[in-house]
Amino acid sequence: MSAADLARLQFAATTGIHWLFVILTMGLVPIVAIMHTRAAYARDPAKRAVRERMTRFWGQLYVINYAVGIVTGLVMEFQFGLSWSGLSKFAGNVFGAPLALETLIAFFAESTFLGMWIFGWGRMRRGVHVTLIWLVALTAYASGYWILIANGFMQHPVGFEVRDGAAYLTDFGALLTNSSALVALLHLALGALTTGGVFVAGVSAYHFLRRTKETELFGGSLRLGLWVSMVASFFVVVAGELQRPIIERTQPMKHAVLEGSGVAEVQARLVKEYGPGDYVPWQDTIRISMDVMTIIGNTVSTITFIAVILLWKNRLMRWRPALWVLLATVPFPFIASVGGWVVREVGRQPWLVYGQLTVEDALSNVSTAALAVSCAVFIALFLALAVTNWTLITRFARRGPDATQLGVTEPPPDDGLDVAPVRTASF
User: Fold this and answer.
1) What b/e readout covers 96-113, taking b as 16+ CB neighbours within 10 angstroms?
2) 409/421 Cα distance (integer angstroms)
3) Can you give the pTM of this predicted structure?
4) Residue 112: inside a domain, yes or no?
5) Do residues 128 and 120 touch, judged by C-beta distance below 8 A?
6) Which of 37, 254, 277, 310 is the most exposed place for a label (fewest CB within 10 A)?
7) pLDDT tens track of the chain, all 427 residues?
8) Nearest residue to 12 via CA among 101, 106, 65, 83
9) Is residue 47 part of a domain?
């Protein structure tokens, strides 16, 4: 493999794995926020207790995914300097600010709010505590916005001018309102909510298959997860179609590949515009990824719609085949989201910044051997983090709410002193 192929493989693998953390984090946190709000303001003490346990159970799974995901995000930052220094030299003046803002929001604001929420159980007023988890959700989506602003510039560069071989920002407003970023953010948010809702519904179905005694807790979780995923999965298809006109206008080759016609004509036009070269991306990869995403999106939408109907008189909780289907559906949104990422990123090849900077020109001056080593190390590290994450999530999900340690009350130390119990969030 060439140096460019190794660098692309490394970035594709690490970004794809990191994306699995992101999509679940963004999908779970609004659901946890809804659960906490319902728990905090429930008038019936019994319902409040059940909903609080529900919040702590799903909140713990969210915190595990967030904590490990942060590590993958930190590791990814090194790749820009290691493999793609040409990208930083050309576009650093433009998307450096969005990336910096994303880092400030994700690693400072979001983490701070989350830490206060974790350790705030039993220590804060309910209104303040609930506000914190909503702030976590808000900053999570704000972080996604800034990432897509940077990525949107790579898809459809706007608000800049090139001086001495480098791009300089001239219109910050155009950058912030880039249609390639905003419509993609809507699609991302709905896809994340679909993923989070299906995850909650699938884990709840698993516990009903085990004939759990926590019927009220997992019944409420199952209903919420299904309603969120049903609504989101319907509109995520709509948001996906809204991107078609944008792609046709800004990336004609990707549009031609997706439509299956006009590729040769667009290739000839791009040669006239940008000079000799192969401007056709991997057609089979893009089409297969698009088909997978579309089929899964429609399948999930259908399954969740039928499941919501079966919630009437709790038929769903008693029909084991339907519960098995919900459990088996959990991986589907993750696969679909990776397919969407492949269409978005691979479809603009050979450009790294569309129409301005090619992949070959952005590659760092690093030897093939060095890239081979870094590629193997990065992929192995990310796979290890992914395995660790899902092992922990599976373990705590199977154990159920009784094993939840987020916000639990520990007994006082046996030292003969009259010390009040301490609430902790340690794992």
Assistant:
1) ebbbebbbebbeebbbeb
2) 7
3) 0.91
4) yes
5) yes
6) 277
7) 788 888 888 888 888 899 999 999 999 999 999 999 999 999 999 999 999 999 999 999 999 999 998 888 877 777 777 788 888 899 989 988 888 888 788 778 888 999 999 999 988 999 999 999 999 999 999 999 999 999 999 999 999 999 998 999 999 999 999 999 999 999 999 999 999 999 999 999 999 999 999 999 999 999 999 999 999 999 998 999 999 999 999 999 999 999 989 999 999 999 999 999 999 998 999 999 999 999 999 999 999 999 999 999 889 999 999 999 999 999 999 999 999 999 999 998 899 999 999 998 988 888 889 889 988 988 999 999 999 999 999 999 999 998 888 876 554 444 443 344 434 343 3
8) 83
9) yes
- Taken in order 263, 264, 267, 272, the sign of the CA dihedral is negative
Domain-located, residue 343: no
Number of residues assigned to the chain:
427
Domain-located, residue 187: yes
Name every residue whose Cβ is closer than 8 Å to that of residue 277 and which is 6 or more positions away in sequence: 270, 271, 350, 358
Torsion angles phi and psi, residue 417, rounded to 5: -100, 155
Instruction: Reduce the DSSP state of residue 421 to 3 states and report it.
Output: coil
Q: Note the Cα 18 to chain centre separation in Å.
A: 8
- Measured from the Cβ of residue 407, the count of other Cβ atoms closer than 10 Å reads 22
Number of domains in the chain: 1
Query: How does DSSP assign 76-142, residue by residue?
Result: HHHHHHHH-HHHHHHHHHHHHHHHHHHHHIIIIIIHHHHHHHHTTTTTS-HHHHHHHHHHHHHHHHH
What's the rounded Cα separation, in Å, for the pair 271 and 275?
A: 5
Alpha-carbon distance 194 to 229, whole Å? Answer: 4
Can you name the residues that pair with 422 across neighbouring β-strands?
410
* Residue 164 structural domain: 3-199+208-224+362-410+418-424
Strands annotated E in 306-402: 351-353, 357-358
